[in-house]
Amino acid sequence: MPISKKIRDFATQSSWIRKMFEQGLKLKAEKGADNVFDFTLGNPNLEPPEQFKATLLEVASDRSPGGHAYMPNAGITSTREAVARYLSGVHSLDLSSANIIITCGAGGAINVVLKTLLDPGDEVLFPSPFFVEYKFYVDNHGGVPRPVMSRDDFSLDLEGFGRAVSEKTKAVLINSPNNPTGKVYSRESLEALAGLLERKSREYGKEIYLISDEPYRDIVYDNVEIPSVLKLYANSFAVSSYSKDLSIPGERLGYIAVNPGIANFSETLDGLVLCNRILGYVNAPALMQRVVERIQGVKVDAGIYQRKRDLFCKGLIAQGYELHIPEGAFYLFPKSPIPDDVEFTRALLEENILVVPGSGFGGPGHIRIAYCVTDSSIEKALPGFGRVLKKYI
Fold first, then answer.
1. How would CATH label the architecture of 5-48+301-390?
2. What is the pTM of this model?
3. 17-39 as b/e: b if 16+ CB within 10 A
């Protein structure tokens, strides 16, 4: 057997997103890109802001020595200072460079945090539906993933979390705005979650951590509030990336923001810095660190994604699809008209429409649609969505 049984099993369960994306590439080669409507991958279709491009050219032209050398494993100090200044305003907290670790994207950040926290057998809870890689990230570091099903409107089920937290729980991982549902968790629900974790931490005599995965924090609509988890709960981390708000997912740059009030602050920071190195990341790319240092707060126009959301939702609802209007990110998660979401996904393929089965996200009976695409793709695909739905209703 050329690969481990564990990885073979993981590959069997693994990312429906990539499977469908690769199917899309084949279809485009056969039928032409304009005739295939690919809504599988959350790959931003907006170009990075002009200020990013201008700053990239400026930084790349800098001939100062040492610009591409190793730096402290937590990241370039001046970059961490810039990120800390910006996030201090976002979270209404006094953050310094000591609270920031620069990472290889949000995925790298989550893995660094989990590597630092988990002992074998520790459990990590997260709301379901969930980003498909969470289970694998937890397993990477000897942990046990424990999804907790959300309510019908995708809000947090606090009673469910209350039942799920146990003496084995080490952390809760949340993602708001959520991938795949676009749900933003309310201040009231996050305050209740924080209160629950405080009570359970006292009951079990141990810290239970809260990790907030926030790459879509700046992709929100209708003036929806994104509450600060760092402000609400002391034993918390906020992790994010610049993939979505700057439209640079291929550059793999993100950060961990560590709550100043976290237990054993110095030891935790030392652990994060060590894990950033020993996981093989060593350092996030130096060039990108120097670029984002100069453009904190610059972001793409989320209003463009809101227009796409409104166009898609209006069209699908008019045809009879059931869905919750997402409050952020760039995904729709409508109900499949039949329980077998995989079968419905295959039926949409007959119209050259590629979406991802919700079962891949722990949300069976739904499909995920990434609408970070051209308006034309949405408009041309809507009739096909309608024709397929009519076969089942």
1. Alpha-Beta Complex (3.90)
2. 0.95
3. beebbebbeebbeeeeeeebbbb
